[in-house]
């Protein structure tokens, strides 16, 4: 049995731990594992490298991905998918494992649908935007990075009596904002899943000041339809001269050593993926629900709708 593995889309902390789990899990069960460099782009170009136990040594704690990643435009077209399939056939690959987010798993599903190639998706993205799994690999690390930034920014905001807007990543998913904002005790959290009311935000910030609060932290997800700069201008105007600063956290949210939680999630889902391949399953997305590793056919997983933010929002509404 020959298995290919690649990482695609934005990198996420824990991808290396997941590559290690798939490689070592596969070798344990007597499979041959081939790493494919540069995501789907490298697949189309035939960048295959045979993996061994040693090739994944000393990577469990490293951020990024040793296989490199790319956002492939070519793979979005059927012609690109067919080229990729030809490479998989040339290298006699029986099953392909992809680690990535929504776009990566959608590409995997299309490859399976178009060619019949056995394909398996593992959720590697900081965004936590896949509905079929409670958590994606990299999300916990990213939330902890944001949390640490909130702590630092709070110190200086408090010293200067400022309001600070911290913009975090997540595309159209507000989970990084919601989880880090909840854990960090932010005054306001703005996410794309929920419309915002500027008057209510101003009233809340002013009420905090009247209670003697020296600082205010607003966590805004990047997918919210107002820029952090525009928001800062509006708030400064309406709050009568209060200084409003903007911090866009950017790529620091994608790097760093993965948390224990992400390494364990990566290891458990990676091994399960190999077991599904052994069991003869045609295609699957592997994730976690509660503390149970789950799998669904790719099409089923990708059709699910995410609503987990509702519970977190309710808690934030009570506590913030
Ligand atoms: O999907 C991960 C992510 O970091 C998003 O949160 C962000 O919007 C995007 O990737 C940034 O992509 P790029 O690396 O192409 O700038």
In summary, what is this structure?
The chain has 320 residues and is α/β, with parallel strands linked by helices. Helix content is 44%, strand content 18%.
Question: If you had to describe this structure to a student in words, what would you say it looks like?
Answer:
The protein is an alpha/beta fold and 320 residues long. The chain folds into two domains: 183 residues, 3-Layer(aba) Sandwich (Rossmann fold), CATH 3.40.50; 114 residues, 3-Layer(aba) Sandwich (Rossmann fold). The protein is 44% helix and 18% strand. The protein has eleven helices and eleven strands. The strands form two sheets. Strands 3-2-1-4-5-10-11 form a seven-stranded mixed sheet, with helices on both faces. A four-stranded parallel sheet has the order 7-8-6-9, with helices on both faces. Helix 1 packs parallel to helix 9, helix 2 crosses helix 3 and helix 5 crosses helix 6. The protein binds 6-O-phosphono-beta-D-fructofuranose (F6P). The site of 6-O-phosphono-beta-D-fructofuranose (F6P) has 11 residues, from loops.
